Amino acid sequence: MGKILGAALVLAACVGYAGSLTEKQKSHRDILCSLIQMIGLLAEEIRYERLPMAEAFAKLHRKYHGAVGQILRQMVQQLSGTEYADLETVWESCFRDNKRELMLTAEELDIALEVGKNLGYLDAGAQVNHLRACGQRLEQKLDEVQRELEQKQRIYRTLAVAAGAIVILVLL
Predict the structure, then answer these.
(1) How confident is the model at residue 64 (pLDDT cuts 50, 70, 90)?
(2) Least crowded by CB within 10 Å, which of 38, 69, 86, 119?
(3) Cα–Cα distances in Å, from 70 out to 2, 35, 62, 73, 76?
(4) Whether 141 contacts 35, CB under 8 Å
(5) 17 burial level (CB within 10 Å; 0-12, 13-18, 19+)
(6) What is the CB neighbour count within 10 angstroms for residue 147?
(7) pTM of the predicted model, to two decimals?
């Protein structure tokens, strides 16, 4: 009876580890989705509301939680402060400070940092076009992440069961 219980626990642990790896991939995908959505909403705020950037970020930060929400809150705090802060510098520092929580690849982070390079400098139409272009590039990355997630889910499940079976055979 003890061997069966031990085997079940080993198999459950392997499958649980595979599930945790899958959840990490899903979190990455969800953060990327939130970032794309935030960029789209920021473009619409600029296009229709024509709000100053600090006010646009303040309006958006209420809608987001997690890593993207944290970035927006930091931007609002830094732009609302008494010290003058260049928007590009604030954008970059907030993204770099939250790099670990964002779980973005280097290429995705570069695209996100590129978003901040033209904010506040160009006219509203050019800013909107720039944001849409960056959003489209991130959407392409999201498609890649989604395909990779589907492939890795199958691989993780298969490897987890196989590894569990091997460990069980070795221990028995």
Answers:
(1) confident
(2) 86
(3) 48, 12, 10, 5, 10
(4) no
(5) middle
(6) 10
(7) 0.82
CA distances from 3 to 9, 10, 160, 169, 170 (A): 10, 10, 19, 11, 12
Q: What share of the chain is helix, strand, coil (3-state, %, to 5)?
A: 85, 0, 15
Residues 6+ apart with CB under 8 A from 136: none
- Which residue is it, tokens 């997630």? 149
- Condensed to tens digits (0 to 9), the pLDDT of residues 100-140 reads 888 888 999 999 999 888 787 778 888 889 899 999 999 99
Q: Which two tokens stand for residue 41?
A: 């909403």
Which residue in the block uniquely carries the two structure tokens 């991939």? 25
